[in-house]
Amino acid sequence: MKRHRPALAAFLACLALAPGLRIQAETMPTLSYLAQDAIDLLAILPPAPRSGDARYEADRAIFRATRVLADTPRWQWAKNDVSEAPADMLRNYACAAGIELTPALVPVTTRLLVTAAQDTARPNNIAKRHFQRLRPFLIDQGPICQPAPEVTNSFDYPSGHTTLGWTWAMLLAELLPDRATAILARGRAYGESRVVCGVHNASAVEAGRLSATLSLTRMRTSPAFQEDVAAARAELAALRNSPAPAAERCRAEAEALSVSPLQ
């Protein structure tokens, strides 16, 4: 999973050096909003399901039932949602936001989202290493939407992709409150793509959303975070009259994502 996520310092350096980007040296952030020991997810998250309990069997049933989604339009969007690259993440939320989003257009917002996501990932990875739950395709056979070597050697619970997607969704909903419903729905679908893909259990996706919410709640006390949120809000406000994403693309996304693996 981490191979898709660029190092924050390198990404921010590219933002600063790339021609035409509206970012100044004085706006470059500290590399974290959240202290290492700021939150203990292991004291809050429910434990990962274990063999024989009801949640474990429910996860297995969902994995088996959702293999019928292979090669459907929803499957293709699950493949689309594999990438954690900031440019791809911004594109994924553009329809929900109602404006085109690229690192070049919103460098301050991108910096906020990438920094916050790094911070929510850190305690989430501690929980992953603690629970060491196997991914669903290693328990039951079935097709998955991304190459197995990319995910076989990392754990299931809580879902890191979901933590990432929900971090972005919650922050974008805060920055664009009039678009909050659509943005949060896209964030939910981003996590559900991991169930469709077959690389995370449903319980891991639920835990990933909770993980992101808990870490973000703690993060909101950071003065640097508060300053960057204000700057990102102003940046997005200046773009509200810019062209919306292509309607055809947004219709295709909405139609495909209306299929939930948990229905």
Key features of this structure:
globular; 0% strand; disordered N terminus; mainly alpha
Structural notes for this entry:
The protein has 263 residues and is an all-alpha fold. Helices cover 56% and strands 0% of the residues. The protein is built from 10 helices and no strands. The protein has helices spanning 8-17, 54-66, 73-80, 86-97, 107-131, 160-175, 180-197, 202-219, 223-237, 247-257. Helix 6 packs across helix 8 (202-219). The longest helix has 25 residues, at 107-131. The protein starts with 7 loop residues before the first helix and ends in a 6-residue tail after the last helix. The relative contact order is 0.19.
How many DSSP-defined strands? 0
Would you tell me the overall average pLDDT? 91
**Model regions low in confidence, pLDDT < 50 over at least 5 residues:** 1-9, 16-27
Rounded to an integer in angstroms, the radius of gyration calculated over CA atoms is: 18 Å
Number of helices: 10
- Please summarize the sheet with the most strands: none
Helix percent band: 55-70%
Q: What string gives the helices and strands in order?
A: HHHHHHHHHH
Question: Shape, please?
Answer: globular
How big a fraction of the residues is strand?
under 5%
- Determine the N-to-C terminus distance: 27 Å
Which structural category do the helix and sheet elements fall into? mainly alpha
